[in-house]
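R.M. (postdoc): so does anyone remember the format we settled on? I'll just put the structure tokens first.
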């Protein structure tokens, strides 16, 4: 058969020009893809996923399904127009929406930029990738931009999220800072969102005791948002990690804050809501944690505070467990038998140490000024008069009772 008449099984292309995939360097420019310090060039999969972080919004379930079926390089080829969407069963309208953003894609430049800030880009399959993020299924991040020196996978193995209101009260900030410090001293990593309010208090509490903390941002890891937390974010990157699904330079918006909450919930072993109003965005993190079968916890606040109403409703509905300090949290999310909270009891009073018979005599002594004779005390205590008299003198030595003629009475404390 003539070769020109054979039927090709390859998917049709929209152009007969040289096949230059968007996740590969243009011809003659291969050096541009290499890291500034040398080393191997990024793989096509990594470049494609880096491009997608600028192309899509976090948690895009449609893109998640496409990636699972076709892989990142093929999806980017389709979006870029190198491959036709038809043979792959992709919605042309959806592809067109993605294609409108293609002009801004330069994954090589993004990788170089994050590396210049001391960061990196990790993808599923990397040794540093936290496998618990796979619980998000189609909403799993296509990759994560990470800034800092620690391993995200290792830090996330023993981590707890502390979230809450941005406009928190002094009570909420104090509790968040105390719990974060206690968790860090127990070897737990504190994860939060880097925002004002409870997030800031949680990060600072962990940093204050030399602990590790992870900030999951709703913007690029090369940015400082909110601006008032610039120094805090710098300290987090030095003493912990900054993490984002968004490419370098991308600004936050209201929806990105909500979407990043699912990463906080999936990354950690449990989420603690310290303070939140009924419509607080922090409650979305708790709901996602509950849906992912993570421990969800709440800290009670003043019943007169609107900023505690959301937490109280969450606890009352059974959606969260009440916790008061790090020991409660560690017992829930820690290893069975290894992170038990200490038994709680009130202070031990001297009266608690009395022998049972002595305590019965003390209880029988009336509080009136006249007191009572021994025979009456014996009837009240159910003991013999001789035993009661012996115990009364023991109580005198301890300063509990005194003799008043033939009667005995309690010593009045001044």
């Amino acid at each position: 058969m003539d070769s020109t008449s054979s039927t090709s099984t390859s998917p049709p292309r929209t152009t007969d020009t040289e096949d230059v995939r968007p996740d590969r360097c243009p011809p003659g420019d291969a050096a541009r893809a290499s890291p500034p310090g040398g080393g191997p060039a990024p793989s096509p999969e990594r470049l494609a996923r880096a491009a997608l972080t600028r192309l899509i919004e976090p948690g895009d379930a449609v893109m998640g399904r496409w990636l699972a079926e076709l892989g990142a390089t093929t999806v980017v080829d389709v979006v870029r127009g190198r491959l036709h969407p038809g043979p792959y069963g992709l919605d042309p309208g959806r592809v067109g929406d993605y294609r409108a953003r293609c002009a801004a894609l330069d994954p090589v430049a993004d990788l170089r930029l994050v590396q210049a800030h001391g960061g990196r880009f990790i993808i599923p399959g990397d040794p540093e990738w936290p496998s618990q993020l796979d619980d998000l299924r189609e909403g799993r991040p296509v990759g994560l931009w990470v800034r800092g020196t620690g391993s995200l996978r290792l830090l996330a193995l023993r981590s707890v999220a502390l979230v809450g209101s941005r406009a928190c009260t002094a009570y909420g900030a104090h509790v968040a800072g105390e719990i974060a410090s206690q968790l860090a001293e127990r070897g737990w990593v504190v994860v939060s969102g880097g925002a004002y309010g409870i997030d800031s208090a949680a990060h600072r509490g962990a940093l204050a005791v030399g602990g590790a903390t992870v900030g999951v941002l709703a913007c690029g890891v090369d940015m400082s948002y909110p601006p008032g937390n610039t120094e805090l974010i710098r300290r987090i990157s030095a003493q912990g990690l900054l993490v984002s699904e968004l490419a370098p330079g991308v600004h936050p918006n209201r929806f990105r804050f909500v979407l990043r909450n699912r990463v906080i919930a999936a990354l950690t072993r449990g989420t603690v809501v310290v303070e939140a109003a009924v419509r607080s965005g922090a409650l979305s993190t708790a709901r996602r944690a509950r849906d992912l079968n993570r421990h969800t916890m709440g800290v009670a606040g003043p019943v007169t505070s609107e900023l505690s109403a959301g937490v109280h409703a969450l606890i009352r509905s059974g959606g969260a467990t009440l916790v008061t300090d790090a020991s409660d949290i560690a017992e829930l999310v820690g290893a069975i038998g290894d992170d038990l909270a200490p038994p709680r009891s009130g202070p031990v009073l001297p009266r608690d140490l009395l022998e049972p018979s002595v305590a019965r005599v003390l209880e029988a002594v009336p509080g009136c000024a006249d007191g009572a004779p021994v025979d009456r005390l014996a009837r009240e205590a159910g003991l013999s008069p001789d035993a009661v008299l012996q115990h009364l003198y023991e109580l005198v030595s301890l300063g509990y009772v005194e003799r008043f003629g033939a009667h005995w009475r309690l010593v009045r404390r001044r």
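R.M.: ...and that's the designed sequence above, right after the tokens. Also worth knowing: Residues 1-34 have pLDDT under 50 and may be disordered. DSSP finds 16 helices and twelve strands in the chain.
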